[in-house]
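My current task is to audit a protein record that another person submitted. What it holds is a sequence and that sequence's fold in token form. Thanks in advance; the entry in question is below.
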Amino acid sequence: MSVRFDRIAAVMFLAVGVLFIMGSSHISSSSYGSQVGPNIFPLFLGIILSILSVRLFYETFQKGKQEGEKEKLQYKPFLIIFIATLLYILTLETIGYVITTFVFLFVCFQTMERSKWLTSLVISACFSGLVYYLYVYLLKGTLTGWPIWF
């Protein structure tokens, strides 16, 4: 990508991150049956997004201007990941976090790099299981882990 595009994207992501941080302060700090409130995730997401956008902005000054040919836009991987994200959102509550997140991550990893299916399988399984365990058992949050019919 171009340095100019990266700088504009960094500023926009920083604005979104700050809005997430500000918006999370208006969400209640606790929910029924959970010690972790619904404001925690947007707060951390805003902080991470802000930090990464500042880093991207800093890196644009490190790169300088690079002369070269433009990259060809990859529409097919974008559409696959976009559709996978929509399906993830629509099926998260009914199928459950663990299975839905595992399938979503596996599809995204395979879209980005097809040859390493075993690595994608292991990382997807470990990530979805570990995040579920940390959130539900350590942080005492509520999350639908398995399908409703289980």
